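Supplementary Text 2. Reproducibility record for the structural model of the 104-residue chain.

All settings were left at their defaults, and a single model was retained for analysis rather than an ensemble. We include the record here because the model underlies the residue-level annotations in Supplementary Table 4.
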Amino acid sequence: MDSHIRKVYVPMTETGFYILLCLREEAHGYSIVKKTEQLTHGEIKISPGTLYGSLSKMEKDGLIRFVREDENRKTYCITELGTQVLALEMKRIERLYKSMMEAR
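Retained model, structure tokens:
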């Protein structure tokens, strides 16, 4: 992973995190929005502009890839690089959580 990717994506925005988390299985934009709302109990609602801007940037940077288009819905999946970035962010979040619990 090059330094540009690390600098841009770690730490991640919540939107970026949930997009990569959802794309561990192939998904299209609307299903990412719905899955994120489900996982966060409605606390995070990704707007279409934010979603499609993020998908475009992540695809350009190689974190996700286009799989196919069905009925005007583009389906994406996470790449190996995206999986590495997601794993780094998950470790960072786990470290934060552990530190928070120890500081109580």
